[in-house]
Fold each of these.
Amino acid sequence: MSIVLLREEDDDDYYHKLLYANGFFVCSIPVLCFSYYNIEKLEEFFHNSSEYSALVITSKHATYALEVVLKKNNLSFSLPQNFYIYVVGKSTELYLQKLGLSSLGSDSGNADQLADYIIKRKIFHLKPLMFVCGNLARETIPDKLRNFGLTVETISCYKTIANDNFPEKISQFIKQYDIPNVIVFFSPSGVKFYFSEICKLCADFERTKILSIGQHTADCIVSMNKNVDAIAKRPTPDSLLEAIQSVFDISGVIKF
């Protein structure tokens, strides 16, 4: 059974490891790519980090922008005491660890749940929080935190664009392995680019099961008049595996 993940493969990719271990053939093909900007503003933020109480990150691509700042200045991150970093998802947490940074909130399934987690800790945030995001980010976290009296500033540091190589890559996959049994969407922007610009260039996957990471991504798929066969409740490999097994009524899980 073959699965296509519409995202970029990581080094030592746990999605691949877990799915392979449970008998699936998996291939990651990114439907999106990213360009980075406002790096100078990020540099300024770190130089003035003592004026803030926290950094909020909901995408691993925002951590890539942090790494650009690190390499550009040949520096290690030095943050003040009582400064916190909040993230959604284990992959973002793990990438920050590679940069020598610890974080909180990675078990949050989405931005809304992370905002709730931060609000419970609002006593630690008399100073502003900085939300680092992409150009298509929703205002879920800033709006919710502001409604509870917290001050939030925002730096947009990456732009999401369609991956021009995707049609060729998915066509190569089909020629070699046939139509995938499962295709997994990781973000609303990936859904929009796929169905509005890219899917029309590729085969029509009528037999393919469609899965999403999170409810918001699922809602976006439905808005494209497509059915969602299962939803991974959290942005984790284990949650995705559970969703796949629910579609195909498979029992028994191999974990690491």
Amino acid sequence: MAGIPPPSYYHPTSAPPSPPASNPPSPSPSPLPSSRHKPRRSGDLPPALAALLTIYNMTVRTYGPSAPEALSIEDFLWHNHFSQPPVFSAVHTAQITHGRDNPETIQALHSLARNLSDKQDFATALALYTICLSRETRMYGNSHPQTLRSMSGLAFAYQNVGKDEDALEMYERALGGWGDVVNVYTVRARINVASIYADNGRFEDAEEVLRRTVQEAGGKLGGGHESTKLAIHNLGFLLRALGRCEEAVGVCECGEWEDEWADCPLLQN
């Protein structure tokens, strides 16, 4: 099974709306510890590749991934940008040996995209996930677990190059495909959706998504599961950043965080 995208932690960049003057002012959100925040690593694709990828996406949206127009651009995209560098050799060999849409070729492409994402080469990973997703859609359909995993991988790449709207759209497609299933992929996707909301000042939406995720993950995966803990931690950090430290401590119930939160003004009384 392919790995899931690494988690994305909150780092709200702006304070929530100021309260009415008649109420005592709330403390400004505290910066989250750097060890808890995975910074974005923006990277630009070469202009020719970026332009071709845009045309490819538009063609797939208009005609579908199996249309001759889409296949023609996909082949041109691959052979002109990904067939020569050594890092792509395993995928290129698989494609020559087994064919473009063979499961082994698709798996090799997915693994390479994931590997580049792990190395924070999100721009190249984005391009490869785009091709991979089209191939998986052709072979497996929109609701196959492999297709849905690539949707999440592509969404994570979009998120880390600053394309939040595209990331949200892709996360929503993936979550819609999973339906009522609760697993590590859906939990991580919702955590990242909440992260995007928080980064864009939609704190109430972020909190709502995280509370639901904590409840569902705890019920299906268990409170001790890594993904459940991650959702709880992110909810705690969000509440702390909004100055609601007592709530945050109540959510997390984690003594090991006491030193990290010692500077919270609401806990110093």
